[in-house]
Design goal:
Residues 11-240 form the ABC transmembrane type-1 domain. InterPro entries: AAA+_ATPase, ABC1_TM_dom, ABC1_TM_sf, ABC_transporter-like_ATP-bd, ABC_transporter-like_CS, P-loop_NTPase, Type_1_exporter. The protein is built from 17 helices and 12 strands. It is an alpha/beta fold and 519 residues long. Among the domains are: 76-252, ABC transporter type 1, transmembrane domain (ABC transporter transmembrane region fold), CATH 1.20.1560.10; 270-351 and 474-519, P-loop containing nucleotide triphosphate hydrolases (Rossmann fold). Strands 6-9-10-3-11-12 form a 6-stranded mixed sheet, with helices on both faces. Strand 9, helix 15 (444-459) and strand 10 (466-470) form a beta-alpha-beta unit. Helix 3 runs antiparallel to helix 4, helix 3 packs antiparallel against helix 7 (211-252) and helix 6 packs antiparallel against helix 7. The mean pLDDT is 83. It binds adenosine-5'-triphosphate and magnesium ion. Adenosine-5'-triphosphate binds at residues 47, 283, 285-286, 291, 309, 311-317, 357, 439.
Length: 519
């Protein structure tokens, strides 16, 4: 007896261990698959999703799905086998009584299905509400400074509580449904016993079965009902996992962006000739608002072109198309005469240095931030040379750990981040350099940084670069070969600084305004 129990404990332990390992592998694989599917989505996909929601899918949702294998499937299998055995035995003992019990089991199964479907729906809502709560928390933490300055802690707590209330409400309903399910089970369970005693008693009186058989019958029917209950209970939690996993599987099934599927043309050397031909564009998330309209622009290799215009005129969007973050709705972009779509995107991006309007840094040391994305082996001297060109070296050496200082987005000023981003772009030794001047850094520092880079580009005749500068401070770009003026998604003027002043259009007006503001 002791030996048997000991064996049983060992077998349960072994089974639990195997399921535990399978569970761990499943969660890991799911997270890997989901993360790599998300990383390869179009940028427009991220315009429609929130960070909180996506991280919630990666975190708790994947964990929830693993319950399918770790717990529920295991128990369902065991109870189905036990129940089937009991049913066969019951039918052999007395088929009319066996059929009665089977009928009760079917009723139980029907209630169980309804309950399971409800749980599936509820689980989906729980996941959605949890994701929304995460989203609020994530947003609040990342905008903590704004929250503190505006004193909106209470408001943010209210926003978070709104989702917590919804979660509590759904949990309450789940508990109520669980109560109803248990009540049905108990009623049906007791009905079986009553039926067995009544009908069985009559059978005994009629001499069809013996009292011993009836006792066995009652015991086995109890076993059958309990197995059905266990299956029901586990199916409902299985349904919860299925409900929670629906969005995870939907996301996992997303095809990677076209850019990663199609094999583009590789090239050794890029001259840096850029041509926009009749390019129009609207963002997929706002498909009715035209952002760029019939843009025609040709930039020669080595030319320094500045793009200016009022806020919202489409300057950054133009650059987004050149970086192929979005595809034009109409028209084409050519690089060295080859349509952008036909070039190998990785190869092309390797030749482009880009400093975004609001540069963001990774939570890693400064050296790693500067060499981020560089595939070749980079020496420390190269990093420092790039930092010097970007006017970043001096302030970096003043930091406690110099180039090894751990930074993230909050630990440096806007201008310092911009300079590190410029160093990152220069280190790639790009053929096309794109600088989107920070709107937030509309100060002499930003102007100094951008001007410095332009000077360095001009003075270094060994490397020819095509440069596109989006400038908010017009004095930054007076030395550009050509200035392109945009308004409402169109190019309205083009020429050198003096030509445009002479023309007395928008550029001249903007220049006058900025000069007046400075006086
Ligand atoms: N991801 C996006 N989804 C939808 N619309 C967008 C998106 N990004 C920008 N827009 C819209 O496109 C228009 C042009 O924006 P863009 O960022 O190109 O302007 P900009 O000229 O760079 O302005 P700024 O000088 O302020 O940087 C704006 O009306 C903006 O609201
Ligand atoms: Mg912009």
């Amino acid at each position: 007896m002791y030996y048997r129990r000991n064996m049983q404990v060992k077998i349960y332990g072994l089974r639990g261990c195997c399921f535990g390992i399978a569970n761990m592998i499943l969660v890991k694989r799911m997270r890997e698959t989901l993360y790599s599917a998300l990383l390869l989505q179009d940028i427009s996909f991220f315009d429609g999703e929130t960070v909180g929601d996506l991280t919630s899918r990666l975190g708790s949702d994947c964990q929830q799905v693993s319950r399918v294998i770790g717990n529920d499937l295991n128990l369902i299998m065991r109870n189905v086998l036990q129940g089937t055995g009991a049913l066969i035995y019951l039918l052999v003992l007395s088929w009319p009584l066996g059929l009665c019990t089977l009928l009760i089991c079917f009723t139980l199964a029907a209630v169980m299905m309804v309950y399971g479907l409800y749980q599936k729906k509820a689980a989906k809502l729980v996941q959605e509400f949890t994701a929304s709560a995460n989203e609020v928390a994530q947003e609040t933490f990342s905008l903590m400074r704004t929250v503190r300055v505006y004193g909106t802690e209470g408001l943010e707590l209210k926003r978070y509580n709104h989702w917590l209330d919804k979660l509590a409400d759904i949990s309450l309903r789940q508990s109520a449904a669980y109560g109803v399910w248990n009540l049905s089970f108990n009623t049906l369970y007791h009905s079986t016993q009553v039926i067995a005693v009544l009908v069985g008693g009559m059978y005994i009186l009629a001499g069809h079965i013996t009292a011993e058989k009836l006792t066995k019958f009652i015991l086995y029917s109890e076993w059958l009902i309990y197995s059905t209950w266990w299956v029901g209970d586990n199916v409902s939690s299985l349904m919860q996992s299925v409900g929670a996993s629906e969005k995870v599987f939907q996301l996992m099934d997303l095809l990677p962006s076209d850019q990663f599927i199609s094999k583009g043309m590789m090239f050794q050397k890029l001259l840096g000739h850029i041509e926009f031909v009749n390019v129009s564009f609207q963002y997929p998330s706002r498909a009715t608002v035209p952002v760029l309209q019939r843009i025609n622009l040709s930039i020669r290799p080595g030319e320094v072109v500045a793009i200016v215009g009022l806020s919202g005129s489409g300057k950054s969007t133009l650059v987004n198309l050149l970086l192929r973050l979005y595809e034009p709705t109409n028209g084409q972009i050519f690089i060295d005469g080859i349509p952008l779509r036909e070039l190998d995107i990785k190869c092309l991006r390797g030749k482009i240095g880009f400093v975004g309007q609001e540069p963001k840094l990774f939570r890693m040391d400064i050296s790693s931030n500067i060499k981020y994305g560089c595939l070749r082996n980079i020496k420390q001297e190269e990093i420092e040379r790039a930092a010097k060109q970007a006017y970043a070296h001096d302030f970096i050496t003043l930091l406690p750990n110099g180039y090894n200082t751990l930074v993230d987005d909050d630990l440096l000023s806007g201008g310092q981040k911009q300079r590190i981003a410029i160093a990152r772009a220069i280190l790639r030794d790009p053929t096309i350099l794109i600088l989107d001047e920070a709107t937030s850094a509309l100060d002499a520092e930003s102007e100094h940084n951008v001007k410095g880079v332009l000077r360095a580009v001009r003075s270094d005749s060994s490397t020819k670069r095509t440069v596109i500068v989006i400038a908010h401070r017009l004095s930054t770009i007076q030395a550009a070969d050509r200035i392109v003026v945009m308004d409402g998604g169109k190019i309205i003027e083009m020429g050198s600084h003096s030509e445009l002043l002479h023309k007395d259009g928008l550029y001249a007006r903007l220049t006058r305004k900025q000069t007046d503001a400075l006086v």
